Amino acid sequence: xxxxxxxxxxxxxxxxxKIVKTIDFEFIREKVKHLYSEDVGKPSIDPVVLFKMxxxxxxxxxxxxxQTVKEIEVNxxxxxFLGLDxxxxxxxxxxFSKNYERRYKDSTIFEEIFKEIINQxxxxxxxxxxx
Length: 131
What we know:
Helix content is 58%, strand content 0%. It is mostly helical. The longest helix is centred in the C-terminal third of the chain and has 16 residues, at 109-124.
């Protein structure tokens, strides 16, 4: 048995660290709260995790959510960014599309969330990765 601190395994200059310092994703929970039920069905996947998965896919140029999930499964920095430890399973690749279809499709929530993320990045300025 070994105890491993994931914090120490993610490079200090990794882009996910810059994203965490730049963007406060907590606003997402409040924005989508009305779309989730606390007492019906099984517990849902954290919406912040789902949106962060899309951020990983976009920022790191991964072509599909299926491939994004595969990358997250083996990439310590991505797991750290999502708040998943080594033993937690990564949400299935279809989870985001199902959530989009069932919760976000007929609303402006999806666009509102990404506009807020863009606003936060613009307020800070440069968010370039290592060169």
